[in-house]
Amino acid sequence: MESFFGILKSEMFYTGSLISLLMRLRKPLQTIFFYYNNKRIKTKRKGFSPMQYRTKSFQ
Predict the structure, then answer these.
(1) Torsion (CA) 25, 26, 27, 29 in degrees, nearest 10
(2) Is there a contact between 48 and 58 (Cβ–Cβ < 8 Å)?
(3) What SS3 state is found at 53?
(4) What is the C-alpha to C-alpha distance for residues 51 and 36, in angstroms, rounded to an integer?
(5) Contacts of 20 (CB under 8 A, 6+ apart)
(6) What is the C-alpha to C-alpha distance for residues 58 and 55, in angstroms, rounded to an integer?
(7) Cα distances (angstroms) measured from residue 42 to each of 2, 6, 47, 56
(8) What are the residue boundaries of the structural domains of the chain, listed by start?
(9) Sequential pLDDT tens for the chain (59 residues)
């Protein structure tokens, strides 16, 4: 995660405007976060994604 924020900071300081950067990054970031929370499967969670595991634990 630290390398992600390092790259984001360098992009903010060395490229055009911050708004244009955020507009370009919005869709890829949404895709990454959706995958990370909904599709990624870990064996520690008995084969469930993080959202499935959380939903199951609250039921």
Answers:
(1) 80
(2) no
(3) helix
(4) 9
(5) none
(6) 5
(7) 22, 27, 5, 15
(8) 2-58
(9) 568 878 777 766 666 677 777 888 888 889 988 888 888 877 777 788 888 887 876 76
